[in-house]
Amino acid sequence: MLRLPSFQYRTPQSLAQACEMLAEEGAVPLAGGTDLFPNMKRRQTEPRALVGLRDLREIQGIRGDGRQGLTIGAATPLVDISEHPAITQAYPGLAQAASVVATPIIRNMGTLGGNLCLDTRCSYYNQSLYWRQALGFCLKEAGDICQVAPGGERCWAVSSSDVAPVAVALGAKLRLASRRGERQVAAEEFYREDGIQYLTKEPDEILVEVTLPPADGIQSIYKKLRRRGSFDFPILGVAVALRQDGDRCQDVRIVLGAISSAPLRARQAEKALQGQPLTRETIARAAELAYKVAKPLDNTDLVHYYRKRMVRVYVEDALSELAGLPVA
User: Which of 184, 160, 235, 159 is nearest to 74 (CA)?
Assistant: First the structure.
């Protein structure tokens, strides 16, 4: 049985107090703990103190609607997001992503902020301490080489968040707070293409809330590939958000998850659809362009070339469903 290392547990009574506690060395935030605690049991991280955020009202709840825009507290449970009427109606892609994270028990504990900040994953990293020691560790943890790409100089651990691709596709804004003050960052700028330093969030910053712009006719969808129909992390996630002007695509974002260290926009695919009707031909062309930009490595479940092939299939299915076309 894997056991947690020793740590101090602190319970701030306000966001300002939480920011003060996180400014101390070795302190990390704790909301649902569904990712943090397994990492601690595997000794991938051993924080000196956990700062509990779950009871802070400032970072909870869902406010607004599709017409005005929506603000979601970072400590809001994923199950609430998956079932909230304003989200299911105006931002269905986000509701779909939240609804397929892990299991019902984990969705009741896990939070929006936790999934957005989910640690990157790799077949060589997410193992027991003894397994990692026998291998000589890896770049993400005390090692000298990336076990996936030994000739490279960077870590290729994969972003495995379900909600992150949707947040990027919808153009969400994230509000961060620390003892130094507050700042807002676009979801797309929240992530780095680096398996170790995968967030632009500083260690002492707290993700406070996520703001979605007015829906304004935007349609959205999320498709997830995984070995089992429940529990598993994505080995491919496809988020699409688009707005049509008549029968033509006016604005579109196609974001691929779980194939690189950050959510990846398929910009050439988006460009190919701009101003075009959503037909079988234009959709197939966009799916092919998304397929070309995807370069998954052999560092998660199933073989990488199968995951790459599925990019074409899942992008085509997502666009076809939004266009009202039969899905193969």
Answer: 184
